[in-house]
C-alpha cells in the first residue's frame, strides 16, 4: 500500500463520520445507481462543505451537480433556517433520490431543484451578485462556463468550491488530452491567475479548489 493511500485512508477516518441518514444515502446510492455511485462526494468533503457554509455564514447557495444529494444535503443542513440552495442537475431519476433524503432531513423547504442543463439555468438568473456559496461538481467540460456564470453572481467575499481538480491525477500528465481533463487543467491554471479571487487547492480526495471572490 502506498503512503498516499495510507494518508487518504487516515484522513477519511479522522473527520466527523456521516450520521445514519448520510450512511443510508451512501448505501441507497450504491444500490440504485451501480457504477455511477463513484460520482458521490466523500463524507469528508461533505463535512468540509458544511463547515465552510457555517464559517462563512452563507445564506444563498447554488450547486451544479446534485446526483443523489449528498453534497446538497451537507450544504442545506448547514444553512440557516432562512437560507436557500438552488440545486441544478439534468437527471430526474437521480435527483428523485436526493428529494427523498432532503425530505427526510427536513431541508426540502430550503432547496429549489432545477432540472436542465446548468449553463442554461445559470444564464437565466439575473446577472447580479446574490450567491455567497457555490459548489461545482458536474460535467467537467462545462466547468469554465459554470465558474464564470457563478462568479458573476457571487457577492464579494463569496466562496466557490470546484470538485475533481486532480481528475484522478490526469491533470498532471500534459499529454492527457481527454476533454474533461483539458478543461479542468486549464481552469485550475486560470483560477490561479485570476485577480478576481483568492484561491487554494486542497488535496482532499480528488482535489477541491476553493476560490473566494475579492
Ligand atoms: C459527480 S455527480 C454530482 C455528485 C453530487 N455532488 C453528490 O454529492 O453526490 C455529477 C452530476 O452532474 C449532473 N450533470 C451532468 N451534466 C450536467 C449538466 N449539463 N447540467 C446539470 N447537471 C449535469 C449529473 O446528472 C450528475 O448528477
From TrEMBL:
<dbReference type="Pfam" id="PF01596">
    <property type="entry name" value="Methyltransf_3"/>
</dbReference>
<dbReference type="InterPro" id="IPR002935">
    <property type="entry name" value="SAM_O-MeTrfase"/>
</dbReference>
<keyword id="KW-0808">Transferase</keyword>
<dbReference type="InterPro" id="IPR050362">
    <property type="entry name" value="Cation-dep_OMT"/>
</dbReference>
<keyword id="KW-0949">S-adenosyl-L-methionine</keyword>
<keyword id="KW-0489">Methyltransferase</keyword>
<dbReference type="GO" id="GO:0032259">
    <property type="term" value="P:methylation"/>
</dbReference>
<dbReference type="GO" id="GO:0008168">
    <property type="term" value="F:methyltransferase activity"/>
</dbReference>
<dbReference type="InterPro" id="IPR029063">
    <property type="entry name" value="SAM-dependent_MTases_sf"/>
</dbReference>
<protein>
    <submittedName>
        <fullName>O-methyltransferase</fullName>
        <ecNumber>2.1.1.-</ecNumber>
    </submittedName>
</protein>
